Amino acid sequence: MGRRALAGLLCVVLLALATGCGIPDRTDVQVDGSGPAVSAGASSSGRGEPPTRTSSGADRETFVRNFLAAAAGEPERAYARVKQFIAREDRNRLAEKQGSEVAINVVRLTEKPVITENVNGLLTVRVPVQQVGLLRANGVLGPPVVTDTEYQFSLRGSAEPGQESTQDGGYYVTDPPSVLLLDTLSLRLYYQIRTVYFWNSDATRLVADQRYLPLAVPNERLVSEAVKWLIAGPSDWLRQGVSGLPDRTALINNAVKTDGRWEVNLDLPGDDRRKLEKLGIQLAWSLSDLDGPLQLTTRNQSRVTIDDLAAHRLANPVYPLTEAPQRFTVYDGAIHPLVFEAEPIGPVPIRVEDNHTIVSAALRRTVEDKTLAALVTTAPGGRHRLVAGSGAAPVQVMTPGTQTFAALGRPVWLRPLGGAQPYGLVVADGRLYRFDDRARMVQVPVGTTGQVSAVAAALDGHRIALIVGGRLYLSTASLDGGVVSLGPVRQVATTLTDLSAVDWAQENTLAVAGSTNRSAVYEVGVDGVLQAGLVTDVGARVTHLAVYPGNPTYVLPTLMMMYEANGVAYRYRSPSAETIRGEQVLDVPSPPAGGRAGSPTAPFFLF
């Protein structure tokens, strides 16, 4: 089947899946408040510069919110915007940096700012925060470099000393913080989130990376900005699993649009046409909202022309997905399909004789129409064992592992390419292991201390989410030389505590189970900026979580998620969840006379 025909078929399936569904209602977890007030010069969509100092008038709460938004926008003017808010006599307390050195501390307000009036007429402001990250001039939000949990400063009236009779309204900040601050609400209001793509180490798969582009940047600069992001390379935590462009690659002037065609001129060391073609695929996906032609030309006049960016994306899908996801569950120790309206149903892809004593499972399709199967089964003495296999469905050979464990988590596959050896990851007795399709397990070091309790792999097979010591981390898996190793870890800031389960919800977001004084499931961005409630009161600790990850190759109209809590399986249906009932499990035998029917557990997706 051709790719265009396949895309049409997927659209038909997706329309069927969309019946009766809506977009999830997700509420950002923030303190009360409307966020920064948009200045008069900004459009209704928030495009443009953040509010000026005087836009808040005499409203002190709005002034503080606007001060926490002032750094937003193009980085070269960040200090000038913030210093508008600072009293002239205190502006030298904020030491300016230039160019690539400009960095903004992104914080999440954990309480509303507390404003108190002193006897001398000054207002003291206390801002409790969680450090989220450091936003660089290149749009990368890296991990935070400071640990402050609150900031304090003062406000005075707007009249300059000696000019009290020329009051112009509003306030000035005195004793300001020594760093640029930007709260997460303002980041989301004044920036657009962009995804750029880097090839993995053998240039066989694209891996997503996130950037922030100020809304004040004109649309005609988008192509140039995307090229610069690719030239600058991936985020630090991704570097071990991906490849950047050759050293000394440079953009010659800005990209221009001529007669409807974007033209990009590059200085590309080696002048390798194959690398130029690979860059064309990266750009097509990194400019995912642009259509039409694009031409790449090097200083030595090598040239690659993309006739239509949309068609180029279709011809080079970012993920090898060919079929709709199917739901399964474990029922009385065996895998069974789940039946829901307008969703595809498929047979269990393992043999009947292997489908028993199962606790949890991971099933994945490969590009060669094979199935990868990993089963956690019971073993003597109340222990658990991994059983794995691969091949055409139903998988004919399932091999039990030689090791048993007191606790064995839900396994995940790192989707292989071509005929490469398939590998997966699983948590066993608080440690992370890799395994293959013969259930051979080898421990994988994790770059932080603590008990590992959960692992999840993104669709690209390289980005890994971990829960270690009850906290959320990201890392990158490298499969070079057939050995699975993890790069440095990055902790992701979230106000959730006691984390228990994680899976990938979209390309750059995770579904995370934890506590906010009650058990809950949230969607959390890979950098911690987004934090949105999915199910805010589960009622019990979530012990199992499975999501079909949203992606640009196979778009779904709503989040598909299932989880287990207190031995009960649930299906997420925005804005809440419903119990998965026994009658929704296919091919379940009737219980023996006097016996009790089983319950669905450990639900998961095959895709």
TrEMBL record:
Residue intervals of the GerMN domain: 195-292
PROSITE patterns in the cross-refs: PROKAR_LIPOPROTEIN
Residue ranges of domain Lipoprotein LpqB C-terminal in the record: 354-530
Keyword Glycoprotein included in the entry's annotation: no
Keywords: Signal
Signal sequence range: 1-18
Family matches, as InterPro entries: GerMN, LpqB_C
Chain segments carrying region Disordered: 26-58
Coiled-coil region(s): none
Compositionally biased spans, kind Low complexity: 33-51
Protein name: GerMN domain-containing protein
Organism field: Micromonospora antibiotica
